[in-house]
Amino acid sequence: MDAVLAIEQSCYPHPWSCEQFHQELENPVASILVCQVEGQVVGYICYWLISGEMEILNLATAPQFRRSGVAGHLLEQAFARCSMSQLSTSWLEVRSGNRAALALYQRYGFELSGTRRAYYRDGEDALVMVKNFTDQESQEKI
To answer: d(Cα 107, Cα 66) in Å, to the nearest integer?
Structure first.
C-alpha cells in the first residue's frame, strides 16, 4: 500500500487517501491491479465492473516508468479480466489538460463522450471517454 500511495501522491494534485484505497479493496465490484518491475510497484489501475460495464476510477504510473508501457499493460490486463464477464463498455473521466492520458486512452479505442465542466477541485474540466467492446474491432484488441 505504501508504494501505491507514493505513486498516487506523485501523480495527482488531490491524491486518494489510504482510506479510499481500503474502501475500494472492500468494495465487491471494485478491482485493483498493480504492475511490478523487479518486485517494485510501478503502476496500478482501480476499476469497477457492474453488469458488463467497466468504470476506470484511477490509473497511475510511477514518474520514472512513464512512457514505458505500464499504463497500457494495466489497461490490457483489466480488459482481459473483464472480457470473461461479457464486457460491453468502459468509461472514465480524465482531466482535459492531461495530454499524455488522452493520447493513451485514444490509442486504446476510447472516444470523447462529453465534458463535465469544472469537475475537479481546481476547476479543471473532466472529459468523459467511452470504449465500446460490442463491435468486432474492439473485441479483437482485447
So the answer is: 16
Cell for 109?
A: 479505442
The number of CA neighbours under 13 Å toward the Cβ of 47 is: 28
Strand residues in 23-125 grouped as ranges (E):
30-37, 40-50, 53-61, 89-95, 111-116
Q: Grid coordinates standing for 88?
A: 460491453
- pLDDT for residue 137 is more than 90: no
| pTM of the full structure | 0.90
The CATH superfamily of 2-140 is Gcn5-related N-acetyltransferase (GNAT) (3.40.630.30)
Q: CB–CB of 90/56 below 8 Å?
A: yes
Helix axes 99-107, 70-83, angle to 10 degrees: 40
Domain ranges in the chain?
2-140
C-alpha cell at 95: 482531466
